[in-house]
Structure formats: structure tokens, C-alpha cells
Amino acid sequence: MKKFVALVGTNTSKSTNRKLLKYMKRRYADEADIEVVELKGLPIFKKSTEAFVPQQARDIADKIDASDGVIIGTPEYDHSIPALLSSALAWLSYGIHPLMDKPVMIVGTSYGTLGASRAQAQLRQILDSPELKATVLPSSEFLLGHSLQAFDDNGDLKSATEAQKLDGLFDDFLEFVDLTSQLDNSKKLHEQEAATAFTWDNGLTGDEQ
Q1: Angle at CA 176, nearest 5°, toward 174 and 91?
Q2: Transmembrane ranges (predicted)?
Q3: Mean pLDDT of residues grouped by 10 in the chain (209 residues)?
Q4: pTM of the predicted structure, to 2 decimals
Q5: Domain annotation for the chain: domains and CATH numbers
């Protein structure tokens, strides 16, 4: 059975993104062991002379390292991902690289109609950066709009159509994980680049400074 880490991309206590990830954990329990992991409590990213990484970020990195893939649930604030998620990804690329070549599935909920579509597009771009270099499931968006009304009292999706759509994407992700496990020709190169050329301090990546 595959093991996935599901990152809750918000610190909101009543997040519908958290609810969606917990729903996926229950729904796909026979196909994968999904651990829902909170980012809440992580400090805002800040460079330091000693390249300090908080223990919480290191613990999350260890979980990702030990997993077969990652699922990220993101809301959308002002057409972008939350500061907490952005900061977490910065910690996970600061001298550590657990997401490198790791299969990632993105899902998102929002109270409005668009279902975090712009945030998901931005998140894909961030995950493709040289410091992260995750392998994101292509052509797959699960956009759950009007999410406050989307779940029943048991935390399950009310819409059979939305549930079937999510089922199809999750099945694709399972196959994607198997496929990407065979694509390791460039993995060592990515690891070498991460350790040398793409650092936060030598200026070669430019935009982070």
C-alpha cells in the first residue's frame, strides 16, 4: 500500500481544505495510507547565518522523504496561496529537499465559485522551481467551489459528481506515482544541483534574495 503525506495549506481551524484531505484519507483508506499533516505552527521563513531550519519543518521533511507522494490542499487568498504554505515550502527547500522528484497532487477548495484555481496555478509554478523541483501530476485540477456547502454532517462530499471526479484524479495519481518511480535518470543530477548550483546564498537563482 502506498503512503502519502497530505499537507494542510492553511492554519484556519475550520478549513474546508483540511476537511477535504480528511475525506480523502477515509475514502481511499483501502488504496493508500494518507497522513494529514498540519503546517500550523511553522514560523514565517527567515534566512539565518547558520541556515537554521525549525524542527517542525525537519519533521515534515522526514515524513515526505518516507512517503511515496504528497497531496497538498490549498485555499486561495487574493489569487494566491496562503503565506503559511509559501513559507513552509521555503523551509522545505532551505538546505533540505524532500520534495525533489516527489510526485505531488494538488487539490483546493474555496468558498466562492472558482475553487482555488489561481492558487493552484501559482502552486504548480512554485513546486517547479529549481530548489523544490517536485513532480506534479499534470492536467489535473480538483477545484471544489462553494466548499462551505459541499460536505455533509459526516464530512463526506455531497455531490456524487465531485466525488467521482476526485476518484478519477486519485486513480490517476496512483498510476502517476508508479510511473515517476521509473523516471530516475535525472534524479542524481537534480540532487547535485540542489546541493551546489541552486542555493539560497550564492545568487545563481537570483529572485529569492
Answers
A1: 95
A2: none
A3: 97 93 98 97 91 95 98 91 96 94 95 84 94 92 92 96 97 96 70 58 46
A4: 0.89
A5: 2-195 (3.40.50.360)
